[in-house]
Amino acid sequence: MPFDAIITGAILVVLIILLGVILLRRRRLSAGARKRYQVLWNALEAREDPVRRLVEADALLSRALRESGYAGSLADQLKSIQGRIPNKESVWKAHKLRNRLVHEPGTAVDDRGVSCAVASFKKALESLY
Predict the structure, then answer these.
(1) Rounded mean pLDDT of 10-33?
(2) For residue 13, what pLDDT is reported?
(3) Residue 1: its pLDDT value, please?
(4) Predicted confidence (pLDDT) per residue in 106-120, tens digit
(5) Distance in angstroms (rounded) separating the CA atoms of residues 76 and 81
(6) Distance between the two ends of the chain, CA-based, in angstroms?
(7) b vs e for 58-90, b when ≥16 Cβ sit within 10 Å of the residue's Cβ?
(8) CA 71, CA 96: separation in Å to the nearest integer?
(9) Does residue 129 carry a pLDDT above 60?
(10) What is the DSSP string of 64-106?
């Protein structure tokens, strides 16, 4: 009987490892997706309006995360990520800035603040490659 338990446990461990590898692989963007996101990012950076750049960067990251297997809004996606994005805190701050600009009329922000926020989104997006 103990031998059967050892075999069953070993099989279970192997299955869990395989499932983990499959899920991790699924969360990487394909080469085609990477090219598509790079083209979209280049178009975003050409925008003159810094607020529009920030809003589009937020949306682009959320779209890439959804494609990588994370569901929900960007806030939901960030909550479910465990160590996948190295700059998660700066992305949270950038997302909060985006929310203030979109939902609170009259919110003022300097170009440097927007540039830092957009750079945070870019670093997070690149971590999905």
Answers:
(1) 73
(2) 81
(3) 59
(4) 998 898 999 999 999
(5) 9
(6) 47
(7) bebbbebbeebebeeebeebbeebeebbebbeb
(8) 19
(9) yes
(10) HHHHTT--SSHHHHHHH-SSSSTTHHHHHHHHHHHHHHHHSTT
Q: Which two tokens stand for residue 129?
A: 């490659």
Cα torsion 101, 38, 74, 80: sign: negative
Residue recorded with tokens 């701050």: 93
* pLDDT band at 22; cut points 50, 70, 90: low
Burial of 37 (0-12, 13-18, 19+ CB in 10 A): buried
State how far the Cα of 45 lies from the Cα of 63, in Å rounded to an integer.
17
DSSP classification of residue 128: T
**Cα 57 to Cα 5, 15, 101, 114, 117, distances in angstroms:** 51, 38, 14, 11, 9
Under the banding of pLDDT at 50, 70 and 90, the label for residue 37 is very high
DSSP 3-state assignment of 12? Answer: helix
Contact 53, 93 (CB under 8 A): no
This prediction has a pTM of 0.78
